[in-house]
C-alpha cells in the first residue's frame, strides 16, 4: 500500500488511465465487429447505400485506431496490424459478391 502522497496520486492516475485505455480498446473491438456486420449486410444486399455504410464504419474504425495509437493506448504496429486486418476483410467482402 502507498505510504506517501505522490504514490497515492500515482495509483489514482494509473487507475484513471487504465479505464480510459480499456474504453478505447473495447470501442475498437466494437467498431471492428460493426464494420464486419455491415460487410455481411452488403454481401446479402449489394447496393450503394450498404456500400456507403461499410465505408463509413471502416473510416470510423480507422479513425479510432489512429487516435488510440496517438494517445499510446495501442502500439503503432499493433494499430497498423488491426487496420490491415480490417481492410483485408472488407476488401474480400466487397470483391466477392
Would you write up a description of this structure?
The protein is an all-alpha fold. The protein has a single domain (5-95), classed as Methane Monooxygenase Hydroxylase, Chain G, domain 1, CATH 1.20.58.110. 86% of the residues lie in helices and 0% in strands. The protein has 3 helices and no strands. It has helices at residues 5-44, 48-70, 76-95. The longest helix has 40 residues, at 5-44. The radius of gyration is 18 Å and the shape is elongated.
Keywords:
Methane Monooxygenase Hydroxylase, Chain G, domain 1; 3 helices; 86% helix; elongated
- Taken together, the total number of domains comes to 1
The major beta sheet can be summarized as: none
Report the sheet-strand fraction: under 5%
* End-to-end Cα distance: 59 Å
Give a count of the beta strands, DSSP E runs of length 2 or more.
0
What's the helix-strand series?
Answer: HHH
The low-pLDDT segments are none
Q: How many helix segments?
A: 3
In CATH terms, what is the architecture? Answer: Up-down Bundle
Q: Over all CA atoms, what is the radius of gyration? A: 18 Å
CATH superfamily caption: Ribosomal protein S20
Mean pLDDT: 93
Quickly give the structural class.
Answer: mainly alpha
Helix percent reads: over 70%
Shape: elongated
Q: Which CATH top level class fits?
A: Mainly Alpha
CATH level 3 topology = Methane Monooxygenase Hydroxylase, Chain G, domain 1
Please write out the topology.
Blueprint: H1 5-44, H2 48-70, H3 76-95
Short description:
This protein has 97 residues and is mainly α. The protein has helices spanning 5-44, 48-70, 76-95.
